[in-house]
């Protein structure tokens, strides 16, 4: 499981850097300041949680079952939270109305919070 988590963390971190560069260079020319700031919020949260997953994968003090649950909450949270933010902030470019999927943004945020809470509980339980 650790290897899978570490590989996922590396991939998500790399994608966050690519999207950050894309936003800074290409999207800066076509999005307004507010849209660009929203896009960058998605990038920040993706990178924070890529680092979170890296910590999780490198940590041997967390039981495997909890690690798996934290991994899936984090991965789905990133996809829902950051993914929906990317789509919503670039609607003017794609001409696709992504507003209906806006409901998954807070669901993704809740999943990320739950991942952190589960990690916290693992260390509270640890003697």
Structure description:
This protein has 127 residues and is mostly helical. The protein has one domain. 80% of the residues lie in helices and 0% in strands. It has five helices and no strands. The chain has helices spanning 2-25, 33-58, 64-89, 91-94, 104-125. Helix 2 packs antiparallel against helix 3 (64-89). The chain is elongated and about 50 Å long. It starts with a helix and ends with a helix. The model has no long low-confidence stretch (mean pLDDT 94).
List low-pLDDT spans.
none
Which whole number gives the mean pLDDT? 94
Terminal Cα span = 23 Å
Sheet bearing the most strands, described?
A: none
Residues in helices, as a percent range: over 70%
Quick one: overall form? elongated
Number of domains: 1
Pfam families: DUF423 (PF04241)
Membrane topology: Multi-pass membrane protein
Main location: membrane
Keywords: Membrane, Transmembrane, Transmembrane helix
In short:
It is found in: Membrane. By secondary structure, this protein is mostly helical. It contains five helices and no strands.
List its salient traits:
single chain; 127 residues; mainly alpha; 80% helix; elongated
């Amino acid at each position: 499981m650790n290897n899978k988590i570490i590989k996922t963390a590396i991939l998500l971190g790399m994608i966050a850097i690519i999207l950050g560069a894309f936003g800074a260079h290409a999207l800066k020319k076509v999005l307004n300041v507010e849209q660009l700031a929203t896009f960058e919020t998605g990038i920040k949260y993706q990178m924070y949680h890529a680092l979170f997953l890296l910590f999780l994968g490198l940590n041997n003090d967390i039981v495997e079952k909890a690690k798996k649950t934290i991994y899936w909450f984090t991965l789905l949270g990133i996809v829902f939270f950051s993914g929906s933010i990317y789509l919503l902030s670039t609607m003017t470019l794609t001409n696709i109305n992504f507003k209906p999927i806006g409901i998954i943004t807070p669901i993704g945020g809740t999943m990320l919070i739950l991942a952190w809470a589960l990690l916290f509980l693992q260390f509270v339980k640890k003697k």
